[in-house]
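Quick one: structure tokens for this chain, please?
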Amino acid sequence: MLTSLSGRFLILAVIFVMIAEVMIFVPSIARFRVDYLTNRMERAQIAALALLGTDEMIDPEVEVELLENAGVLNVVLRRDALRQLVLSSDLPGPVAKTVDLRDADPLVLMRDAMLRFVATEPEVIRVIAEPARGGGMQIEAAIDTGGLHKAMIEYGINILWLSLVISVITSVFLFLAVRRLMVMPIKSLVRQMNRYAEAPEDGRRVIEPRSRVAELREAETTLQSLETQLTQSLRQKERLAQLGRAVAKISHDLRNILTTATLLGDRLEMVDDPTVKRVAPKIVNSLTRAVNLTEGTLAFGRAEEAPPALQYISAGEFLTEVCEAEQLSVPAEEVAITHQADPRLTLRADPEQLHRVVGNLIRNARQAIQATGRTGQISVSAAEDETGWTLHVADTGPGLPKRAQDNLFQAFQGSVRKGGTGLGLAIARELIQGHGGDIALQSTGPEGTVFCVHLPKGGVGDAFA
């Protein structure tokens, strides 16, 4: 119970009420002491006036009785500028201090009250007050504090019991209120969250805001929005997963069919018929693009790429191999593919995966230049700094349109070429992120486009932070 929210509220309520009672107790005990002394002074005045009314002819035993009833040891009355000892008896000891009740400082009264409350030994004090109802100019009395101390202790015990009763009652009501208004709604919210977690794809389990407490209702509304979005996202992912599995199966079978058709197309090129020789290369090229599309779809549809087999490779040799392989696809007179790197520079990467990445960037640049019908250049360079290695792939093409920039690296959305799928950059980025790096579009415009590939030295790095 003590670890629950309502239990902690109960403990805090008791503590706070007791603190409040302590803060109230000090001025209360001071007020009690003043009232006690004022009462004694009023009794002393009555006793003095009774004696003065008999022309000071009173039996000693009656005088003692008057002092006992008044609760004082002697009475001095000041009238007409004269101080007169009206009633007196033997003092048990010397006067320890004087207490002036006329315009007393509240802080002084509270201090004296607490000192008297904790003191155990009685003492004689001299009390000065103004007489009630004009019974003189000033009245003084000697009082034994033994009775005062006892009365203050009894008063303090009563205050303590009252504080405990108030604390218990307040705490119980606060406990019930907190449990009803906060704890129970929170428990209900937790139960609903657990129920939703059992089947998050079930839209019927999304919470419906019902709380009347503004803060809890706001929490329920936010939770409803999150659960709704999560349910929709899970449904969409499930549909995409099913679609992906279907596409993968179709692509796999289609690739086999297209591969066979490509082999047949290659044989057609050996036929001497002029029409066949003119048409056969176009058929082969179309079949090759179809095979590449199915292979790209299968690669992207896999659950995950194999982790990179990192090794140190020569940057110059690697760029030479990639650029020469891509140059075979187009005459150098149309698109010239060049590279530049320090012969001593080495890169740490998976050579096969990096070949796919750089080759894809070069292929995209080549296709963009060829689409313009003009000649162009593609340059690939490699450099090293303290954080890692950077490969730049720059072209003199027409630049990327706004739609392509907005959907860059998003599968099936970032393609510029008609009939393209946009898988190339998405796969390339996934491969580089597996190295701990990233790909970024550095610049694009009518003068050309530049892509940067960053490979960190320490494994997973903060690329393009």
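The domain at 311-456 is CATH 3.30.565.10 (Heat Shock Protein 90).
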